[in-house]
Specification:
Oxidized Rhodanese, domain 1, alpha/beta, 5-stranded parallel β-sheet, single chain
Length: about 170
C-alpha cells in the first residue's frame, strides 16, 4: 500500500476509535485500542485459513525450507519463559520491539545479527519470533543460527496473540 493509502486507512481506524496514536517527532506509533479488535481480526484470519487452502499452498511455495518440527507452540513455551537455559529472540526490524514484545525477549533485528552473534550462548536454546507465521525473517534467523551450531526453533504464533495471552509487553 502507498503511504497515502495507509495514512487514510489509519485515519479511518482512528476515527472509529479502533487505534490510538502516539507521536514522537515526525513518527506516529499506532496501537489497537482494545484486545477485542485483534481477537476479531484473528477470528477472521482463522476463518480465511479454513476456507482458503491457497494460503497454505502459497506458504509452502514461499517458505519451502520451513521445518514444522522446529516450531514452538504456546503451551510448550509457557513453562520455558524465564528459564536461564532459553533465550527468546525478537528479530523484528528496529523500532518494532518498543511497540510490543514478549516480556524478557532480547531484540536483535536480522540486519544486526551477524555483528551480535557473540551474545547468543550456544549452550542455550534460542526461540525466535517475528511478525507472523508467513514472515520469513524468523526462518532466516533459524537457518543462520543453525549454521553456526546453535539450537534454535521458531515460535508458531504472532506477537498480538501473545499480547492477548498477557505475556507480552
Amino acid at each position: 500500500m502507498s503511504v497515502a493509502n495507509t495514512s487514510q486507512q489509519l485515519k479511518t481506524l482512528r476515527t472509529a476509535r479502533m487505534v490510538n496514536v502516539r507521536r514522537q517527532g515526525v513518527v506516529a506509533h499506532y496501537r489497537l485500542t482494545d484486545d477485542a479488535i485483534f481477537q476479531t481480526w484473528q477470528m477472521m484470519w482463522q476463518l480465511g485459513e479454513v476456507y482458503k487452502a491457497e494460503i497454505e499452498r502459497l506458504a509452502r511455495r514461499l517458505l519451502p525450507d520451513r521445518d514444522p518440527r522446529a516450531l514452538v507452540f504456546f503451551e510448550e513455551l509457557l513453562p520455558l519463559l524465564g528459564e536461564d537455559s532459553v533465550m527468546i529472540l525478537d528479530v523484528w526490524p528496529d523500532g518494532e520491539y518498543e511497540a510490543g514484545h514478549i516480556t524478557g525477549a532480547v531484540s536483535i533485528p536480522l540486519v544486526d545479527l551477524p555483528d551480535r552473534m557473540a551474545i547468543i550462548n550456544k549452550e542455550h536454546e534460542v526461540i525466535v519470533y517475528c511478525q507472523g507465521p508467513y514472515s520469513s525473517l524468523s526462518d532466516q534467523v533459524v537457518q543462520l543460527l543453525q549454521a553456526t551450531g546453535h539450537k534454535v526453533r521458531r515460535m508458531e504464533l504472532r506477537l498480538p496473540e501473545w499480547r492477548t495471552s498477557g505475556i507480552a509487553g
